[in-house]
Specification:
Layout lengths: L1 H5 L8 H21 L5 H4 L20 E4 L3 E2 L6 E2 L2 E4 L13 H30 L2 H37 L22
Antiparallel strand pairs: 1-4, 2-3
Helix pairs in contact: 4-5
């Protein structure tokens, strides 16, 4: 279906595509059922695959409506099933999407880590100032370790900032599958 959207193929769905979808759905359903069964369920046989149905909508049919899927008959028995569904439409939400959210979050997390390490360093230095001679060696070791963590975190920050800057300068309007134009979103990071 992704290829269909990317190539703007809005023609009727083919039997091969239906079979591909059917096989994928069946595998997912059987996998979900199987992963939730115990050994005792094997003897009760409560999860028969009764069939596969679908409903397509043409342009004029895409409106709010309730509908029934085609009837499913269980093998050679007289058991018949009908699934009902509903189709509702609404405007696409206009909530802004930050296309650089991952990179922005990584920079923010690294800055928070660095700030936390600096706070830890200040606390350790205060402890060192009031420590007994027996405690000082352990506190100095913790200060050295914290300084090493600060150096490591500060060394990682420029790469993360470069990724964010690259994302912010990139024209995202044509990144959506199918060539749909997406307006770049401006997100202000309050600091």
């Amino acid at each position: 279906m992704t290829k269909r959207i990317q190539t703007r193929n809005f023609g009727s769905i083919t039997d091969a595509e239906i079979e591909t979808i059917k096989a994928a759905v069946k595998a997912k359903v059987e996998g979900a059922i199987g992963s939730n069964q115990s050994i005792w369920n094997a003897f009760t046989n409560q999860d028969d695959n009764l069939g596969f149905v679908y409903k397509t909508f043409t342009d004029s049919e895409i409106q709010f409506q309730y509908f029934d899927f085609p009837e499913i008959k269980s093998g050679g028995s007289s058991n018949r099933f009908v699934l009902s569904g509903g189709l509702s439409l609404g405007p696409v939400p206009s909530t802004p999407v930050d296309l650089c959210a991952t990179q922005r979050a990584a920079v923010k997390a690294k800055n928070e880590e660095i700030n936390s390490l600096h706070t830890r360093l200040l606390l350790l230095q205060d402890q060192l100032h009031h420590a007994t001679p027996q405690q000082k060696a352990a506190i100095v070791a913790e200060i050295n370790e914290t300084n090493a963590f600060i150096t490591q975190a500060e060394a990682q920050l420029p790469m993360l900032q470069a990724k964010l800057d690259s994302c912010l300068s990139h024209d995202h309007r044509h990144d959506h599958p199918g060539g749909v134009v997406i307006d770049p979103t401006i997100v202000v990071d309050p600091r």
